[in-house]
Amino acid sequence: MTSSPRTTRSAAIWTLAGLVLLTLNLRAAITGVPPLLGELQDTFGLTGVEVSVLTTLPELCLGLFSALAPLLARRIGTEAAITAALLVITAGLLLRVVPAQTALFSGTVLAAAGMATGNVLVPAVIKRGFPDRVGPLTGLSMMLLSVGGAAGAGLAVPLDHLGGWRPALAAWAVPALVAALVWGPLALRARTHRPERAAAEAAPSAGAGAGPSAAAGRPRTPAGTSPDAASGAAAEQGSLLRSPLAWAVMVFMGMTSLMFYTLTAWLPEIMHDHGFTAATAGMMNSVIIVIGIPLGFVVPVVAARMRDQRPLVLGAVALMAVGLVGLLLAPRAGWVWTAVFGVATGSAFPIALTLLSLRSPNGAVTARLSGMAQSGGYLLAASGPLTFGVLRSVTGGWEASIWLLLLLVVPELVCGLLAARPGFVRPGPPPPDGPEESRPEPAPVSARSTDSDRAR
Prior knowledge:
The protein has 456 residues and is mostly helical. It has two domains: 9-190, Up-down Bundle (Growth Hormone, Chain: A); 240-419, Growth Hormone, Chain: A. It is built from 20 helices and no strands. The chain has helices at residues 5-24, 28-31, 37-44, 48-66, 69-76, 78-95, 101-129, 134-163, 165-170, 173-192, 194-202, 212-215, 230-234, 244-273, 278-305, 310-329, 334-358, 363-395, 399-419, 452-455. α14 packs parallel to α18. It is globular and about 60 Å long.
């Protein structure tokens, strides 16, 4: 069965609307909890340990459940998996308003599990449905993630004042349910087009290349892609755990997330200890997030237009190192380092997210790479704030903890540069005479490739 151009265009518009609604629902349920922690602790009688568990659960669940998202998408389809994820988010948010500790924690796990699935499948939807718009739509998704997160945090207290903690926690169940109602018809449509959808997912995606080849009317391919049509089918075989490039992407994503979560968790206290008021120190966190909103849109667009993203990685990681050194040597210049951290973290994570699409030959592999990178990455990131705090408690100062972050800049840079090299991940062991990573030739004359994994 083939679709008419009009039907295809309508499906694309519907998918774009669903993508917007999905990304708006992937952070608010998490960011809306910290402003209410005091009231929740009093209401449920939570101990300090239980409060720590409640705030750590979302990150742990993002790591644990991200690995399951590609399996679910392969079994029931990407659209159906997203619909299910949004319904799970809705159920989790409603469950949290039940006045029982078990409901609060169980609802948090459910909501985070749904968000983990959505996180993983966003790059796959973009890669498969809009292969020539990877940069702009990844940027839009990043911006909407930040907007949703900021809205969740900003509206929590006003909603609490209007109706108490229950409506403040449950309010985001409404947009999650609306998003599920949009994705439901897409899931039904996908079931009727399953054979052609399977062929489309296995085929290499055309991309958003820019430059002379596009101007000349030749087929465009995304930055870092290969015209080798066989790579799409080959990429469906084997495990990504055998691909060094996939591991580089995962560690880079984990390190960028670790830096962000650790800094936003502890920077206010660091600044407060160096003479800034509590209100000013807290505002610095907001500035980091606000700086990241426009960068979340711009950076993926720039990255997708580049054949080699290593200059972007080098710039973002260098800024992080500058900010950390500045925090050690001149902490009183806190606003300067806050701005530097905002640009560094606001650039690094969008680069990592964009690489999930640029390093994949098709949407199916994007989902698998996204699952691996986000699962391992979030678990790695979750260890950052805890380790930073423990080291501070042991040493009695901030210097050792900041030096630890500086040390972690090294693997972030190394893995980032490896992940940003042009090429595709190739799951599983290589064919007898074939590559593990397929790499484009400088000129699109043939579909030759090199064994880039062994070359490393």
